Amino acid sequence: MGKYNEAAPILIEHIEQATIILGSQHPKVLRSMHNLADTYRGLEKFDESEVLFRKTLQSRRKLLGENHIETLQTQMKLARLLRLINQYDEALILVRDTAEKQKALLGEEHPTTLIAMQELANLYQHQNKLAKALEIYNHVLTTRIKVLGEAHPDLSKTLLGLITTYLLNNNTADAEKYFKQLTKLAEKKPERFQSDVMTAKTLLTNYYAQHHQPEI
């Protein structure tokens, strides 16, 4: 949390000074407010983060419009925070809206759109809507490989999402299949993927232990 502790007072001072000079609704002020809200999230000050994200989102919608890319950035950050604090229903509404607008603005295969789609799959997984989650995860994985290549870091989180969801669905065969794909990525660039490999390995080990099954 060191970098967040350092960033927070700098951002607060910048917001105060910029507000005096530029006004509270200036895009530069709103950008700093967005960054401060994200910093509070990193510091686990979730109440302060939520209040500031909501205030920034309201101002960006008014100033820039609901379809502006910076408005959607704040909307997505708020949705991720809401997922973190288990407010899944509102988070799902925000992420669906963000994904649809980013598709229209950037295209269905744009990396930013795929981030929103991944978050949508994460939310469906948390709500135990596993079929929907798997459909989106698989779409995101296929598209990311096509657009970004087979060794891009973003693939790791999608594979981990697939492994987790297949285990929740008691489908160890597909979970193992995607685990093997993840380990192959780690062989190429271990510094990028090793953490997610260890997380996936722990998930598989715990699943087999809980279900009294030998590991494949």
UniProtKB/TrEMBL annotation:
Single GO cellular component term: microtubule
Keyword presence, Transferase: no
Primary location group: cytoplasm
InterPro entries listed in its UniProt record: Kinesin_light, TPR-like_helical_dom_sf, TPR_rpt
Pfam families xref list: TPR_10, TPR_12
Example of a GO MF term: kinesin binding
Keywords: Coiled coil, Cytoplasm, Cytoskeleton, Microtubule, Motor protein, Repeat, TPR repeat
Keyword Cytoplasm among record annotations: yes
GO biological process: microtubule-based movement
Annotated compartments: Cytoplasm, Cytoskeleton
Family affiliation: Belongs to the kinesin light chain family.
Official protein name in the record: Tetratricopeptide (TPR) repeat protein
Lineage: Bacteria, Pseudomonadati, Pseudomonadota, Gammaproteobacteria, Alteromonadales
